[in-house]
Design a protein that fits this description.
The complex is a heterotetramer, with two copies of chain A (about 150 residues) and two copies of chain C (about 120 residues). Chain A has about 150 residues and is of the alpha+beta class. Chain A has one domain: Heat Shock Protein 90 (2-Layer Sandwich), CATH 3.30.565.10. Chain A has a five-stranded antiparallel beta sheet with strand order 1-2-3-5-4, with helices on one face. In chain A, a hairpin with a 5-residue loop joins strand 4 and strand 5. The longest helix of chain A has 20 residues. Chain C is an alpha/beta fold. Chain C has one domain: STAS domain (Transcription Regulator spoIIAA, 2-Layer Sandwich), CATH 3.30.750. Helix content of chain C is about 40%, strand content about 30%. A five-stranded mixed beta sheet of chain C has the order 1-2-3-4-5. The chains are: A alpha+beta (about 150), C alpha/beta (about 120). Chains A and D meet through helix 1, helix 2, helix 3 and helix 4 of A and helix 2 and helix 3 of D. Strand 1 of chain A pairs antiparallel with strand 1 of chain B, so a sheet runs across the interface. The complex binds adenosine-5'-diphosphate (2 copies).
Chain lengths: ~150, ~150, ~120, ~120
Amino acid sequence: MNPPNIGAIELEIPASPQYVSLARLITTAIARSLDFGDDKIDDLKIVISEMCTNAIIHCDNREGVLNRIKVRYFPGERDLSIEVEDEGPGFDPECVGNFEDGIAAGKGFGIPLIKSLVDEFELNTGPNCGTTVRIKKYDFDEGDRA
Amino acid sequence: MNPPNIGAIELEIPASPQYVSLARLITTAIARSLDFGDDKIDDLKIVISEMCTNAIIHCDNREGVLNRIKVRYFPGERDLSIEVEDEGPGFDPECVGNFEDGIAAGKGFGIPLIKSLVDEFELNTGPNCGTTVRIKKYDFDEGDRA
Amino acid sequence: MEKQDVDLRIESVKVNDYMVIVLEGEVDVYSAPLLREEITRQVARGEYKLVVDLEKVAFLDSTGLGVLVGGLKRVKPHDGELGIICSQEKMLRIFRITGLDKIFPIFGHVDELKRRQAGE
Amino acid sequence: MEKQDVDLRIESVKVNDYMVIVLEGEVDVYSAPLLREEITRQVARGEYKLVVDLEKVAFLDSTGLGVLVGGLKRVKPHDGELGIICSQEKMLRIFRITGLDKIFPIFGHVDELKRRQAGE
Ligand SMILES: Nc1ncnc2c1ncn2[C@@H]1O[C@H](COP(=O)(O)OP(=O)(O)O)[C@@H](O)[C@H]1O
Ligand SMILES: Nc1ncnc2c1ncn2[C@@H]1O[C@H](COP(=O)(O)OP(=O)(O)O)[C@@H](O)[C@H]1O
């Protein structure tokens, strides 16, 4: 009876670390209502945290001005897509490293971790353009599709 | 260190009954983080449900078009304000009844219940204007202020 | 987000004369239709002494209250009753605030219902 | 939403040679500074054999991992160690994915730590 995509759920929060747990909570509730299993919900909790953390940390909050970030959820038939958008400085996607770089630097695990936990990953960014990261995760394992 | 009002949290959801529980969950998380007691959180769960239910039910979803409603949270020092906005047909505030009317009609408990559970209540509506309901609830009892 | 995600389970059991509709979960605008259907179904089956057990209900709002009042309206023409089982203070409070505690007989426990019946 | 709402409790206990930093709650960008401070504090006190107990941690993301790597960097110049206590599969998986399971010694239980020390 319900249309397959009943429309996005949008959340806009101040670019402040304390709100990341709220995004996790909402992600969990949405994924659970879509019948995602516990393992995939655990993955999504990490993914949303990484996405929001990057948007908040790199968002360049100027003195006295608190930026805001947007989180959009698109529930699908058998998947959930999530988009996080910030109006920060953006960056050169070439800067994204891998886990080895991360271990050496003690940071930079975020995007590699997101990529390894989702089925689709899309990054839209560039200097002075803000950043939008969009992921899609299925409620089944890639292998099971074959 | 944190500014008293760090900015609103905004949620936009499709005007569909299934999302009311999500609004409750978010309200609970925000109120808990503000140190509201369990009793006041229970009140707020009812209040947000009534606010969202009215916005969704009376929102006049036309064939194939799914309206959206907005929920805004304004965390204060010792209070939480919540605003729910819809772009529905609006209504004449004179129509709002009391509990006796509700018992006779078997409906119409919503707004009287909201009013009795919050510290401040504000209704902005009118024919063809959409509706915004705004409430404020303190994390302490009115009596304790004296 | 399909209908099966409704966080409300309903089970009806006969306790002497009464049909006790036991709810577990949340009663709101999304789930209340299930309760309405169950009441309609019981009335259609000729059950006019209904009791709705709210002990395991974590949340109830005005939509749920409306369904209960609607249920009362359905059984009344049949000389029926609609009672509530509820001992949770947070819920009793809502019945008091709305004045619905004067409309529905409220029992603290299903046993009270049994005793009441035995006493009659 | 004040800092005291951080959902992370930290308690450090000495187990033989090791200073075990026991975490309970969630480690993310909001709470990780508390862990960083505790590691810094212990290193400043001359504790270079650190073990971070993640058994009661419900959530850990890359910010937490970064703090652990940072901790390792602090104790290394002192010939120290930084171990992890963790038996939760969901968390071990993250250590494996990132390759950090090869950087940190991982113990399944604090007892393993005691045994290991006794065996040395
Ligand atoms: N939303 C963003 N806005 C600006 N720069 C970003 C954003 N997300 C990531 N970056 C840049 O990409 C780098 C790699 O990000 P990531 O892999 O998440 O690791 P980390 O955030 O720990 O450095 C960051 O250090 C930062 O320079
Ligand atoms: N957001 C809204 N948009 C349009 N009409 C509304 C809205 N909220 C309330 N109303 C009107 O006010 C009446 C009273 O609302 P309420 O007290 O919540 O009871 P109920 O919704 O059960 O009728 C409703 O029946 C409806 O006509």
